Amino acid sequence: MTAFYKTSGNATDYEETAGFSAIEIVQLVLYFAIILVGLVGNTMIVVTLLGRQTRRVGEYLILNLAITDFATCAISIPLDLAERLSGGFPFGSILCYMIYPFQTVLMAVSVITLLSMSLERHRVVMTPMRPKVLPRTAKFVIGVSWLIPSLVIIPYALVLRLEGKQCMEKWPEDWYVKVFTLTNFAIFYVVPLTVIASSYVRAGRKIRKELDRLEHVVDSHRSQVQYTKKRTLQKMRITKVFIVAVSAFLVCMLPTHASWIWHDFGHGWDSKYFQDVLIFSNILMYANSASNPFIFGSLRKFSLARLFCCCRKHSGELYQLECIYELRVGSTTLHVGREMAVKGYNKASKLLERTNTNRLKCANV
């Protein structure tokens, strides 16, 4: 519900504040940090997965989530910054109908993608002998994840109006906005996260039972037992990654939902602390888009010391700085190489090569 915090507040809030408070300054600084980290991290995920000749269903879903997070960092947060710095909505009446709904759609797509991830992981763990889900099915699910929120958000877009410097919600009756708030909270938070939790609990129990059973297997076929145990541990590791991603989303999004439920049902708009709570919830909400690259992958062979060393190389020497981003849910690795030549007449060269190592696995993990 990214758009909610824009239009439900008082239109006079900006006009009554001549400058920025300390918490607002912190908000702006953190916004810039989230944009930088989120753009770089999600770009690495996108480049990693697009570099593969073949992708599994889970990787398609991770790619969709990364694109959503990238759009959040590249579009949603900068628009919020522009509105905050200008003291109003500076984009005109037409964009008033489009920007806030689009931001809400990004949040909804993330939820549906996480739900799809949990169902796919549940299928892999609970019914490993069933045929694999084809890539075209994953593409269809991704299309649906964008279509459904786009349709659901239409009523919200129709009640937006530009009044003065503010893009405001103009509901026919007060109870309309309460129904809308609860509906979005149920559809895009409570229901999907309940299903997600149930799926991962069942999958976790199944994996734990398999590991316990392997511990008591007679050691007559040691190599086969070790192979099965290794695959089961890999399933557990990948499942934990997805669980961490869902947990981060749950924690980061709950304050935003709670803030607007308080606003609509508990007269939160009348509290002097509401704006501070809202700023905190917005920071946490956007931080989720920058956290997923750290959850789904990690950097390898990167050192700031090596980065600084390249600046101290003598003339005529060539130094290579290599940064590798590796996904935790597969064998895909992104290699980003930077060769820097320091000569009397030549400055540091640009990125020279990007090599993607593709290793295909037949196992449905």
TrEMBL record:
It comes from the Eukaryota. One of its GO terms (cellular component) is plasma membrane. It is a multi-pass membrane protein. Keywords: G-protein coupled receptor, Membrane, Receptor, Transducer, Transmembrane, Transmembrane helix. Its main location: membrane. One of its GO terms (molecular function) is G protein-coupled receptor activity. It is found in: Membrane. Gene3D superfamilies: Rhodopsin 7-helix transmembrane proteins (1.20.1070.10). InterPro entries: GPCR_Rhodpsn, GPCR_Rhodpsn_7TM. This is G-protein coupled receptors family 1 profile domain-containing protein. Belongs to the G-protein coupled receptor 1 family. Residues 41-296 form the G-protein coupled receptors family 1 profile domain. The chain crosses the membrane at residues 28-49, 61-79, 99-119, 140-159, 179-201, 241-262, 277-296.
